[in-house]
Write a structure and sequence with these properties.
This protein is α+β, with helices and mostly antiparallel strands. The chain has five helices and five strands; from the N terminus they run E-E-E-H-H-H-H-H-E-E. Strands 1-3-2 form a three-stranded antiparallel sheet, with no helix packed on it. A two-stranded antiparallel ribbon has the order 4-5.
Length: about 210
């Protein structure tokens, strides 16, 4: 989760940080990718790639994306919490914590719901691909389709703020065991399933907000 790649057009000034933070530069006639503050850089031959990444699941943005295989891997351990299953790159590669939380909201389930209890795992996988496709050429993670600050996510980072669907305050917590636990966010009204007990469990007065796409 450390470091950053910046891609520049030919002749464009590099602005990702001071030169001393550059760890790798990959260039072609079409552009240059500059790696800043990368903690580990390992070079290997293309023929050896599977030795390093062969255990990963289907790449959501890859040319050989296989939705059927991704669903099969997700359901291989049906008792696992859905947010953990989504974050496990051995199931499908590309989902981070923001997307995992947002996908739980879109599916209407809490992060602790067992993956085997998902009503439509194939739809969840398809929505994951749609989210990543929509964001692959822009910074950040806009999951609602609304680019305005404060409206870009359904629940992630919105603890204490109204759910965009029902205006119930969004709740935050931790899921998993330290040191591998993750921050999770959910709406206690819109998302069904197991979760720590919270006091706000019904929508506030004043009408509903915008419903999430399903």
């Amino acid at each position: 989760m450390d470091g950053r790649w910046e891609v520049y057009r030919p002749g464009e000034r590099w602005t990702g940080g001071p030169d001393r933070q550059i760890r790798a530069v990959l260039g072609t006639d079409r552009g240059t990718a500059v790696g800043y503050r990368l903690p580990v850089v390992e070079l290997l031959r293309t023929a050896d790639e599977r030795r390093i990444v062969g255990h990963l699941g289907p790449d959501l943005l890859g040319p050989d994306w296989d939705a059927v295989e991704a669903v099969r891997r997700l359901l291989a351990h049906p008792g696992r919490p859905v947010v953990e299953a989504l974050l496990d790159q051995r199931n499908l590669a590309g989902i981070g914590n923001v997307y995992a939380n947002e996908l739980c909201f879109v599916a209407g389930v809490t992060p602790w719901t067992e993956v085997g209890e998902l009503p439509h795992p194939d739809r969840l996988v398809e929505r994951a691909r749609q989210m990543l496709e929509a964001n692959k050429l822009r910074p950040g993670h806009i999951t609602t389709g609304d680019t305005r600050p404060g409206y870009q996510h359904w629940v992630y980072g919105r603890a204490g703020r109204p759910c965009p669907r029902c205006v119930t305050p969004v709740v935050a917590g931790r899921q998993g065991s330290p040191p591998r636990d993750r921050a999770v966010f959910w709406c206690p009204y819109c998302q069904r399933g197991p979760a720590p007990e919270v006091t706000a469990a019904r929508p506030a007065r004043g009408g509903a907000g915008r419903p999430p796409g399903r």
